[in-house]
Each structure stands twice: as C-alpha cells, then as structure tokens.
Amino acid sequence: MWALRSIGVRRVLAPTAVGSLTHSYGPGTLAFPDQLVDRTRTRVQTYYDEGACHVPFADPYCPSVRSVAIATAREQGWVPASSGTLVVIEGPRFSSRAESQWFAAQGWTLVGMTGHPEAVLARELALCYGPAGPVTDLDAGLEEGEGRHPGRSLRGLRRQHQAPARPGRHDHRRPPRRREDDLCAHALDGITLPFQLP
C-alpha cells in the first residue's frame, strides 16, 4: 500500500479469490463484501509503531470503490453479491469443516486469505480500498468430501475467466474525482502521525 500511495494511487480495487460459507453465493459469484472479520495471527497490521494512531474502521471497505465496482459489474452482465462479511484466515491451509461451520454460524458469508491487513493498511494511509471476490468454491462446512482444494479453486477461477463479460474490461465509470466527501480520505483527520506520508 505504501508503494501505491507513493506513486499517487488513492483508490484500490483488489481481486481476492474467496470460498463461500453460504449456498446463496455459489461458485461463479462475484462478491463485493462490505465487512470483514480478522482471524489472522502473524500479520503486521499497522504502519504506526509509535504513538496512538487509531484509524476508524467500522466500515473497512471503501463505499465509493465498492459502489462503482458493483455498478460496473452489473453493466458487464454479472449479478454481483453486493454485500457480505469476509472472514480472513491466516492460511496457507484451508479451513477445517468445524471452522467453516463455525464461521457460517456467525453469519459470515465468505472466507479467504487476503483482504486484511490490506484494508487496514490502506485506511492508515487514507487510501480507498475494496476487494472484488470471485467465489471459486463452497467452503468445507457446506459440502461433503474433502472441502476446499487448490485444484478446485483454480478450476473455479478458470471458469470465471471464461465468462462472456468481465467487470472492468470496458469500464467507463469512474469514482468521483474529488475525495473530500469520502470517509477514507478523512481517515487521518485529527490524528498526529509519527512521520510524514508520501
């Protein structure tokens, strides 16, 4: 995120392959989650090691980036899932069946290994960030057999690349040029940073 900000990028729509915790979001769904749950343990989650730099994170993904991405996906023929909670797991292993069932019982809808800490690091830099999650397969708690498997996940991604239209290929929509009203642009308002951002 730091490198992106240093070259002037202020908005990021990041692809992140996900598994589904609900039959409502089957393989082939393009999901734009609006919430996340962090189940990671070892990832660095801040740029600020000194001082108290508490950024707002109630809405972890940028609503402006999400709304443009969702509208573009619809224009390209997708029927996107326009909300959902992404539980981000440490990896590299997939969930056990018990973990998957527990995640689903909490009301969470998607599971993946990316999307956090990227979201909080973007917020700490006042960047707009949103994930676009192609659903590759159902997670272990929703089906019999061995659960998620790398080969099936890759096949799911290949099927999506064969779809007749892809969001963003002919994207003519743009987020508003001005970011003054965007919550991400104001994430650092009133916070004294220990160093200057690029």
Protein architecture, described:
Mean pLDDT is 85; it is low at 164-172. Strands 1, 2, 3, 4, 5, 6 and 7 form a 7-stranded mixed sheet that branches. The protein has a single domain, classed as Rossmann fold (3-Layer(aba) Sandwich). Helix 3 links the parallel strand 5 (85-89) and strand 6 (110-112). It has helices at residues 2-6, 63-75, 97-105, 118-124, 150-161, and strands at residues 11-15, 18-20, 30-31, 35-39, 85-89, 110-112, 128-138. It contains 5 helices and 7 strands. It is α/β, with parallel strands linked by helices and 198 residues long.
Secondary-structure map with pairings?
Layout: H1 2-6, E1 11-15, E2 18-20, E3 30-31, E4 35-39, H2 63-75, E5 85-89, H3 97-105, E6 110-112, H4 118-124, E7 128-138, H5 150-161
Parallel strand pairs: 1-7, 2-7, 4-5, 5-6
Antiparallel strand pairs: 2-6, 3-7
CATH topology: Rossmann fold
- Shape field: globular
Radius of gyration: 17 Å
CATH architecture: 3-Layer(aba) Sandwich
Write down the secondary-structure element order.
HEEEEHEHEHEH
Q: Helix- and strand-based class? A: alpha/beta
- What is the beta-strand fraction? 15-25%
Report mean pLDDT, rounded to a whole number. 85
The tally of strands reads 7
What is the name of the CATH class? Alpha Beta
Instruction: Write the CATH homologous superfamily.
Output: Nucleoside phosphorylase domain
Assembly of the depicted chains:
single chain
- Helical segment count: 5
The structural domain count equals 1
The biggest sheet, with number of strands, parallel, antiparallel or mixed sense and barrel status, is: 7 strands, mixed
The first-to-last residue Cα distance is: 11 Å
Percent range of helical residues: 10-25%
Low-pLDDT residue intervals, each spanning 5 or more residues: 164-172
